[in-house]
Amino acid sequence: MVGLGMLALLGCLKREETIRIEPDGTAHLQMVFNGNPDDVRTGDAMLEDPGPWEVKDAIETDNDGDEDLTRTATLTVPPGEEFPTHFAGDDTELADLCLAMSTSLEIEERPDGTYYHFRRVYHRRDWARIDYFRRKFVEDSLKKLEEEDFAELNETGQWQIARDLLDLEGLKTLVLAEAAAKAVEPPLRQDDRLAIHQVIAGVFREVDTDRVVKILLLDDDQKDVEITSAVQEVRDELERKVNEVLFARDPAGTLGRVFMDQFERERRRYAISEDLADEHWAVVVELPGRILGHNSLAGDPDDGEVRWEFDGDALYDRDEVLLATSVVERD
After folding, report:
1. Which residues have a Cβ under 8 Å from the Cβ of 166 and sit 6 or more positions away?
2. Distance CA 60, CA 103 (A)
3. What digits encode the pLDDT tens for the residues 119-150?
4. Across 172-178, average pLDDT
5. Which of 93, 156, 173, 213 is at a distance of 20 to 30 A from 100, taking alpha carbons?
6. Beta carbons of 84 and 281 less than 8 angstroms apart
7. Which H or E run includes 167?
8. 103 C-beta neighbours (distance < 10 Å), count
9. Is the distance from CB of 67 to CB of 61 less than 8 angstroms?
10. Contact (Cβ atoms closer than 8 angstroms) between residue 285 and residue 28
């Protein structure tokens, strides 16, 4: 049922990141998140729990009354200390779900000067399997919605789009459930995983498509309320039937709860990945001395600065690697 949110327009969120390296290796970091307040505060971790960062928020309202939130975070990393690996607090539930990155700075002394080797990796987000289902089953429906409002479609068209979205959500749930089954300790046995597979498929077959059509025809506020209610109903039914499947192994129901908790974590991980698609990155790295080389496609360096730009879907199933080297030449 989360897939119904695909009908909503996504806001574009911008990330501007500046990393300034001093000759001794001190790194000054600045992150600027800009967009709709809900986009900044939900989805991937955006320093709601600032930890060591200094964070300031500023909200502006345009002539139409729409709000725009700019969150600016700064941090100084002393020479030799590790860079942050994500923008969530280490003790929060998002720490191992949100976007992860690794950063290294190697300072190399050579006879002709001091070399600075910068490397930043934004780590991949699993995407291909579920995206295959989206392209296979709902791409035509989504294209139709770009051309025509849902309310203007005939009843057959509305029913088919609602059914396509339900089928996609069922397939997505199967993928996330398999990941959850492998992640619990001990991992579920294959026969249990297959039984859960059948449960999920059955639950989504039984969802009333006509009810989904009626929900999609509501205004936005009512739609959000009804979708939340419908999602909870599906989750409750899944949990009940999963517990039935696992009852023979665990009459107390603990295994079922552990599995559903892990499933919710996998669902949140996917939701974060989905939110990243409409985000735009601009990353500027300032290194001491003269830039010798870099892998940016955004143009030549300017006064010791290298700039990269990319969209969030660049992280789907591949790492995004930023490399730059500079030299401070000896007299």
Report:
1. 1, 3, 204, 207, 209, 212
2. 33
3. 999 999 999 999 999 888 888 888 888 888 99
4. 95
5. 173
6. no
7. helix 155-183
8. 19
9. yes
10. no
Alpha-carbon gap, residue 78 to 93, rounded angstroms: 27
Q: What is the pTM of this model?
A: 0.86
- Range from 8-17, 32-41, 95-104 carrying the lowest mean pLDDT: 8-17
SS3 293: strand
Average pLDDT, the chain: 89
pLDDT, tens digit, for every residue of 292-320? 999 999 877 777 899 999 999 999 999 99
In this prediction, residues 24-46 reach a mean pLDDT of: 86
* Residue 43, pLDDT score: 67
The percent of residues in the chain predicted with pLDDT above 90, rounded, is 65
Closest CA relative to residue 51, chosen from 74, 82, 21: 74
Pair of tokens at residue 60:
């502006």
Question: What b/e readout covers 77-95, taking b as 16+ CB neighbours within 10 angstroms?
Answer: beeeeeebebbbbeeeebe
| Cβ neighbours of residue 181 closer than 8 Å, sequence gap 6 or more | 187, 188, 192, 193, 196, 259
Which pairing describes strands 13-21 and 279-286: parallel, antiparallel, or unpaired?
A: parallel
- DSSP class of 303: T
In whole angstroms, give the CA distance from residue 286 to residue 69. Answer: 26
